[in-house]
Amino acid sequence: VQLSESGGGLVQPGGSLRLSCAVPRFMFNFWQISWLRQAPGKGLEWISDINHDGSCTAYADSVKGRFTISRDNAKKTVDLQMNNLKSEDTALYYCATSSDGQNRGQGTQVTVSS
Predict the structure, then answer these.
(1) Dihedral sign (CA 42, 43, 44, 48)
(2) Taking residues 67-84, what's their average pLDDT?
(3) Are 8 and 99 spatial neighbours (Cβ–Cβ below 8 Å)?
(4) How far apart, in whole angstroms, are the C-alpha atoms of residue 36 and residue 104?
(5) 86 neighbors 96 (Cβ within 8 angstroms)
(6) DSSP conformation letters of 10-77
(7) Averaged pLDDT for residues 69-89
(8) Distance CA 39, CA 52 (A)
């Protein structure tokens, strides 16, 4: 199983982006989904989780208060709304079925630059 990320792009500091993770229908209502990122030259960093029904979320301190994870039952996606983006948010963003990145997709690039 491999998830699929989309929605990345180039944005100025202070801007916003919304990432989407397409989750196979047979998994959507049963699996926790995580978002992670990897900045150039750095390791994989966990940033957020949402449980199978959306009732529980968690965030890394680095994104708390700026990023929001949610589930879209109609589209079968797990979305990451990113506000007040900073240059240090520049990274390749992945969604996965675990906090350590299992079953992650190819990733979507987010670049924050003026």
Answers:
(1) negative
(2) 96
(3) no
(4) 9
(5) no
(6) EE-TT--EEEEEE--HHHHTT--EEEEEE-TTS-EEEEEEE-TTSS-EEE-TTTTTTEEEEEETTTTE
(7) 96
(8) 27
